[in-house]
Amino acid sequence: MTVLVIAEHDNVSLHVATRHAVGAARLCGGDVHLLVAGHDCATAARTAGRIAGVAKVWLASAPQLAHGLAENVAAQALELLAQEAYTHVLAAASTFGKSVMPRIAAGLDAGQISDVTRVVAPDIFERPIHAGNAIATVQALDAIKVLTVRPTSFNAAPLDDTEAIVQDMTPVDDAGTARVVAVERTVSARAELTSARVVVAGGRGLGSGAGFTVLEPLADALGAAIGASRAAVDAGFASNTLQIGQTGKVVAPALYVAVGISGAIQHLAGIGDAKVIVAINKDAEAPIFGVADYGIVADLFDVVPALVTALQED
Ligand code: FAD
C-alpha cells in the first residue's frame, strides 16, 4: 500500500494542514509519498521531505503550477497516479483540497470520501453527516481511495531531521481553463484560524462591522484568532475567510469564545473539537449555552470590555 498526499503550500512554506493530512495518511498503512506541485518550490519540497513518515516527495515545478490552480494540480496528480501504483490519494479538507480532490476523483472515475475524521481500516472511514449530528462509517470500494481529511481530527506529523528523497517529475501542460489574474493576500499578525489555540468568534449579536471590532482587544489580550458566524459574514460584519461552521472553517482550539452567537447546528459543526467553550449571550435560552462549558448571560458590549480590563490587570 502506498498513499499519495497532495501538499498545500505557497512555494516556500508548507501549510500545516499538509502535516495533518500526512498524519491521516500514516493511519491508512504503507508508505506515504507527497506531491509538491508549484513553481520554484524546492524549499517547500525539502520541508515536505522532513515530515516524519514521508518516504518520497514528487516535485513538479512550472509557472502554470505556481498558484495551486486546481485544474493543473489535479492534472499533475492524475499523471502521477497513472505512472505509479498508489492505493490512496488524499489532501486536507481545506479550500485547496476541496477544489483539487473532486477533480482527481472524477479523473479516476472513483467516488470521493470527504471530510474523513477517522481511519477505521485502509478502506473504511468515518465522516460527519447532517452538520456533524451523525457519523457515517463508509467503505471505499474503488481501487484507489480518494479522500479529503479533516485536519483537526488528525495529529500533525512532526518534522524531523531526516530528509526523504525528492524526485523531479515533468510538469503537465497548462490546462488553459483558468488563470490567476491577481493575488490579494490578507496580512494579519493573528494566529491562523484553523490552527489557533484560542479563537474569539462573533455573531449577528455584534450588530455591525463597527460593533465587530469590540472583539479585537479581547483577541489581542488572549492571543486569539478571530472567527465569525455565517450570519455575521452575510451581514458584512466580517470577512468570509473568518466563517466557522458547516460551510466555513472547522476549528479545534483549546478555548473558543462565542460572542453574540446563538449556536445554530451549522455553526456548532465547526467547533465540535473545541476543548473549552465560553459563550456570551444576552438570551439565556440561546442553544450555545447547551454546548458551552462556561456561559455569561449579559450584554456583550458590557462583558467584553470588562473581560479585557480584567485580563489586562492580570
Ligand atoms: P443569530 O442566530 O441571529 O444569533 C445572534 C445571537 O446574538 C442571539 O442569540 C442573540 O441573543 C445574541 N445577541 C444579540 N445581541 C446581543 C448582545 N448585545 N449581547 C449578547 N448577545 C446578543 N452558520 C454558521 O455560523 N456557519 C456556517 O458554516 C453555516 N452554514 C450554514 C449552512 C446551511 C446549509 C444553512 C442553512 C445555514 C448555515 N449557517 C451557518 C447559518 C446558521 O443556521 C445560523 O443562521 C447562523 O449560525 C446564525 O448566526 P448567529 O448566531 O451569529 O446569529
UniProtKB/TrEMBL annotation:
Electron transfer flavoprotein alpha/beta-subunit N-terminal domain residues: 3-184
InterPro entries registered for this protein in UniProt: DHS-like_NAD/FAD-binding_dom, ETF_a/b_N, ETF_a/FixB, ETF_alpha_N, ETF_asu_C, ETF_asu_C_CS, Rossmann-like_a/b/a_fold
Keyword Coiled coil on entry: no
Keyword set, alphabetical order: Electron transport, FAD, Flavoprotein, Transport
UniProt-listed Pfam families: ETF, ETF_alpha
Taxonomic superkingdom: Bacteria
Similarity remark: Belongs to the ETF alpha-subunit/FixB family.
Protein name: Electron transfer flavoprotein subunit alpha/FixB family protein
Lineage: Bacteria, Pseudomonadati, Pseudomonadota, Betaproteobacteria, Burkholderiales
